[in-house]
């Protein structure tokens, strides 16, 4: 798999990260280096081996259906650049 | 259980300029899971709270917060799967669906793309005209709901409320087995009914707790049958997905508009583009959601914060053993045990309150068919007049049962029963006592009826002569006797005595 500058630009856009045009070639090259490194894994034959999801035999932890959280509007909004009337206020996004 | 078999309905056909077209519809229904807390946090799911009051740091996507699954949500999904006769997967897993939107603070939705908790099932969708469509369910997966953006509070800003963020949804995915707008609405209504019986979703469409995405395509007659034979989707047209509708009426309208749009494109020599569209009920059209198209690259990957969800067969069996009687079974039982018509049984099983009321009435009345008539025609009719729900009925099943018993024991006539019902409805009280206290008992004493008939005959010699010529006029005498006795005479006895006395 090879990442060109157009793909790098698309990935940046999907992640909502602003990247200058001039920086795209270097970014694409970095992506390729990372992917190339990971692709070494393809050399292994994993036929018939189940994917390993955990190194310890753990069961997914569950919670009971009890309300234990919330009621903290001020704390939830405290990091927001802009909040009004209990809402986060963000630049207009309309379909 | 009685086996109800139905014919399949005919697919909806739309006449194009050149020839007929058929519709093919698949649906993704999003049902909010009925639980107290969210899917991965301990925040409340209660509707109508202050903005951002039902938000845990997990829901707000704060760094370092980890999701912990609410076991009740898993149980509800399993319950729903069992209710749709679906396969339950003892191992399922969660994936991240990545996209940007201000009401999705994590930057991804936790969903189940690769290994959903529920697999293939089916739903029988009756259409009320004696036909029913068996719709195949492809899968049900658990996922997080997004928050809510409000765009009309400020000209330059959108306001975001995260109360709904992280609430558990079941996405119920059907196969493309639905063949018309009415079927689509009936399908959603049937899912809603089943989930209300199961108690797994409150079914409130207005609040958005049940909403549907609809995939619509059009094809030439017989193309769909080829798809069903071969499983090859290339026999079908290109589909468009209409997003996020929370009204049965809009679903039908949107499908109709979208199908006509696609037919116009194809007949004009064009090609339908596969895309996501939005229905605008004010303009009566669907339009493309271009922004959604760009973001369609969701870069799914397994959520590293969550181990696979493993459940035990014994746990599933316990849930299965505790399932309530479901609509199809209840309807079949009403038809089999009480001798009801298909229609009456459908009306009485439409919701649980009605079904419970009916059965309690039968228990008091001892006559299923008569109880069905009285519940559907008199009680529902009366409640509807005042926009009341069965839950607020001023007449209890016990009272209604007593009224019916008074009819079947010949104590009162059907006509008087309606007056009695009105008294009980408006004033309350014990029907037996009311009948006694107000002298509403039917006169079955033939001596009294004979006296009344003799009197009418004596007063109306002309009518007697006419009735002898034309026996149909005997009805006039019956009417006069009923009037004279204040409607309390037993009509059957009056009929017999009038005929006898007139020598008919």
Overall 3D geometry of chain A?
flat
Question: What is the CA–CA distance across the termini of chain B?
Answer: 50 Å
Oligomer category: heterodimer
- Secondary-structure-based class of chain B equals alpha+beta
Summary tags:
heterodimer; A: about 100 residues; alpha+beta; two-stranded antiparallel ribbon; 3 helices; about 35% helix; flat; B: about 500 residues; Arc Repressor Mutant, subunit A; 3 domains; 9-stranded mixed beta sheet; 3-stranded antiparallel beta sheet; 17 helices; about 40% helix; about 20% strand; elongated
Give a description of the structure.
By secondary structure, chain A is α+β, with helices and mostly antiparallel strands. Helices cover 33% and strands 9% of the residues of chain A. Chain A has a domain at 5-42. Chain A is built from three helices and three strands. In chain A, a hairpin with a 2-residue loop joins strand 2 and strand 3 (87-91). The two termini of chain A are 34 Å apart. The model of chain A has no long low-confidence stretch (mean pLDDT 91). Chain B has three domains: 22-319, no CATH class; 334-437, no CATH class; 446-502, Arc Repressor Mutant, subunit A, CATH 1.10.10.410. Chain B has helices at 71-83, 181-198, 223-230, 248-267, 290-294, 313-321, 327-338, 342-349, 352-365, 368-385, 397-408, 414-427, 431-437, 446-459, 461-469, 474-484, 491-502; strands at residues 13-15, 20-32, 69-70, 91-92, 95-98, 108-111, 121-126, 132-144, 148-150, 157-161, 168-174, 210-219, 240-245, 276-280, 285-288, 301-302, 309-310. In chain B, strands 1, 2, 7, 8, 11, 12, 13, 14 and 15 form a nine-stranded mixed beta sheet that branches. In chain B, strands 6-5-16 form a three-stranded antiparallel beta sheet, with no helix packed on it. Chain B has a two-stranded antiparallel ribbon with strand order 4-17. The interface between A and B is large, with 38 and 57 residues.
């Amino acid at each position: 798999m090879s990442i060109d500058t157009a793909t790098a630009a698309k990935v940046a856009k999907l992640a909502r990260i602003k990247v200058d045009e001039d920086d795209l070639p270097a970014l694409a090259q970095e992506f390729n280096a990372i992917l190339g490194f990971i692709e070494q894994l393809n050399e292994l034959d994993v036929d018939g081996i189940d994917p390993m999801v955990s190194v310890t035999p753990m069961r997914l932890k569950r919670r009971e259906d009890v309300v234990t959280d919330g009621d903290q509007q001020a704390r939830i909004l405290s990091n927001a650049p802009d909040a009004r009337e209990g809402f986060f206020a963000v630049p207009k996004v309309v379909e | 259980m009685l086996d109800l078999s139905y014919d399949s309905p005919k697919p909806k056909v739309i006449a194009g300029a050149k020839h007929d077209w058929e519709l093919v519809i698949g649906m993704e229904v999003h049902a909010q899971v009925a639980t107290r807390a969210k899917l991965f946090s301990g925040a409340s799911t209660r509707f109508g709270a202050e903005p951002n009051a039902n938000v845990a740091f997990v829901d707000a996507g704060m760094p370092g917060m980890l999701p912990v699954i609410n076991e009740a949500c898993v149980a509800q999904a399993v319950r729903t799967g069992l209710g749709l006769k679906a396969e339950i997967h003892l191992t399922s897993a969660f994936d991240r669906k990545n996209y940007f939107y201000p009401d999705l603070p994590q930057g991804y939705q936790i969903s189940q793309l690769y290994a959903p908790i529920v697999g293939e099932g089916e739903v029988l969708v009756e259409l009320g005209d004696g036909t029913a469509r068996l719709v195949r369910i492809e899968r049900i997966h658990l996922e997080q709901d997004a928050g809510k953006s409000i765009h009309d509070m400020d000209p330059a800003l959108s306001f975001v409320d995260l109360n709904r963020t992280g609430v558990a949804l079941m996405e119920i995915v059907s196969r493309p087995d639905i063949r018309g707008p009415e079927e689509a609405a009936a399908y959603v209504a049937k899912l809603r009914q089943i989930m209300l019986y199961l108690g797994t979703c409150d079914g409130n469409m207005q609040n958005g707790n049940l909403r549907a995405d609809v995939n619509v395509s059009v094809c030439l007659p017989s193309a769909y049958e080829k798809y069903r034979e071969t499983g090859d989707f290339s026999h079908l047209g290109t589909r468009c997905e209409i997003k996020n509708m929370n009204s049965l009426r809009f679903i039908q309208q949107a499908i109709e508009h979208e199908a006509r749009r696609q037919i116009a494109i194809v007949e004009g020599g064009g090609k339908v583009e596969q895309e996501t569209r939005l229905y605008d009920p004010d303009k009566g059209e669907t339009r493309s959601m271009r922004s959604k198209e760009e973001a369609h690259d969701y870069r799914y990957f397994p959520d590293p914060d969550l181990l696979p969800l493993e459940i035990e067969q014994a746990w599933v069996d316990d849930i299965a053993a505790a399932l309530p009687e479901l609509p199809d079974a209840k309807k079949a039982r009403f038809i089999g045990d009480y001798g009801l018509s298909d229609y009456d049984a459908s009306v009485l099983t439409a919701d649980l309150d009605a079904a419970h009321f009916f059965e309690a009435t039968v228990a008091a009345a001892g006559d299923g068919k008569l109880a069905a008539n009285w519940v559907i025609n008199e009680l529902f009719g009366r409640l509807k007049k005042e926009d009341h729900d069965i839950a607020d009925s001023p007449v209890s099943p016990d009272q209604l049962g007593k009224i019916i018993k008074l009819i079947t024991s010949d104590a009162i006539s059907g006509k008087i029963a309606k007056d009695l019902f009105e008294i009980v409805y408006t004033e309350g009280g014990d029907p037996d006592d009311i009948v006694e206290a107000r002298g509403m008992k039917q006169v079955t004493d033939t001596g009294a009826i004979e006296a009344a008939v003799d009197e009418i005959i004596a007063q109306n010699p002309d009518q007697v002569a006419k009735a002898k010529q034309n026996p149909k006029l005997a009805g006039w005498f019956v009417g006069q006797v009923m009037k004279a006795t204040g409607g309390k005479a037993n009509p059957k006895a009056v009929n017999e005595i009038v005929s006898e006395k007139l020598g008919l």
